[in-house]
C-alpha cells in the first residue's frame, strides 16, 4: 500500500475545521466505529476536537464482525470509561441502546432546560466517524426514513445535515473524516481492507495479500476452508504471504490465458469476500491482544 498518495482530501480538513463550531449546538457525540476495527477506526483528530463532550461509541457493522470480540470490545471500552454499544445499522439492531444512553447522559441538562421553561427541548447528537463506517445509514435508521444518501464507498457525505428521530432526538450527520497520519502499517491496512480509504489510493494486490495473511493469523480455519491454503501464523507482511496469495488465486480460478495468475482479479475478489462477510464474521483487531500489548507497554 502506498504511503505517497493523499487520503486526506480538502473536504475532510474542512469538515474537521467546521466541527468545533457545530459542537456548540451538540449535547452528545455518537462516534460510529467499524466493529471489525474498533481501534483503527477511531480518529484521534475527532477525539481531540470533541474532548469533554459526552460520547457514545457505536460499534457498527456488528453483523460482519466476530461476536465474541464485539462483546469484549464493548466491555473494554466501557471499562475505559466510554459507553459503547454494538449495533447493526442496516438491520436496526442495538439502536434502542443508543437512545437510552443518550437520554441518561443528557438527563441533567434536559432537567435544567425544563426548569427554565424550555419544555420538550430535544437531545441534539452528532454522528461522527471515519468514512464508510455507516454514519448516514445509522442516521436513516434512527430517523426511520431516508434523510441522508448512503453508499458502499468512502466519501459519500460531504456536508453537515440535520435529521430528527421519531422520538424527537435531533441528529446531525457529517462527512467521514480520516487524519493526515493514519498510524501504523497495520492501521492503514485495516482501514483499506474495510473500505475507509478509497481503493483508488491503495494498491489492491498489496492490501489483499497482507489482508489474507492478517486474517489467516486470526482465523486460520476460515481461510483454509475458503481458499484451501494454510501458512505460518502471525505474519501479515506482504512479502511473506505472496506465495499463499498466489495459491489461493489459483484455487479460485483467477488465471489469465497462458497460465499466469490474475492477481488483480483475485485481490478484488478476496477484498469483496471479506467486506461482504463471505469468509466469516471477522474482527481484524482483537481486544485481548490489544489489551495485552497495552499492558506490556505500560510494564
Ligand atoms: N453489513 C452492514 N453494512 C452496513 C452497516 N451500516 C452501514 N453499512 C453499509 O456500509 C456502507 C456505508 O454506509 P454509509 O452510511 O454511507 O457510511 P458513512 O459513514 O455515512 O460514509 P461517508 O458518508 O462516506 O463517510 C453502505 O453500503 C451501508 O449499507 C451495518 O451495520 N452492517
Ligand atoms: Mg455518510
Commentary on this structure:
This protein is α/β, with parallel strands linked by helices and 299 residues long. It has 2 domains: 10-173, P-loop containing nucleotide triphosphate hydrolases (Rossmann fold); 203-298, Conserved Hypothetical Protein Ylqf, Chain: A, domain 2 (Orthogonal Bundle). The protein has 11 helices and 6 strands. It has helices at residues 10-23, 44-49, 67-79, 95-115, 135-143, 185-194, 204-218, 220-227, 242-251, 263-276, 287-298, and strands at 28-34, 55-60, 84-86, 124-129, 161-164, 170-173. It has a 6-stranded mixed beta sheet, with helices on both faces. The longest helix is centred in the middle third of the chain and has 21 residues, at 95-115. It is elongated and about 80 Å long. The relative contact order is 0.14.
The number of distinct structural domains comes to 2
Shape: elongated
Low-confidence stretches: 295-299
Which distinct ligands sit in these coordinates? Answer: guanosine-5'-triphosphate, magnesium ion
Radius of gyration, CA atoms, in whole angstroms: 20 Å
Sheet with the most strands, sense and barrel status: 6 strands, mixed
Q: Give helix % range.
A: 40-55%
Lateral arrangement of strands in the main beta sheet? 3-2-1-4-6-5
Q: What structural category do the secondary elements indicate?
A: alpha/beta
From the 3D coordinates, which CATH architecture of the largest domain would you assign? 3-Layer(aba) Sandwich
Order of helices and strands: HEHEHEHEHEEHHHHHH
Strand content: 5-15%
Mean pLDDT across all residues, rounded?
A: 91
Q: Specify the CATH homologous superfamily of the largest domain.
A: P-loop containing nucleotide triphosphate hydrolases
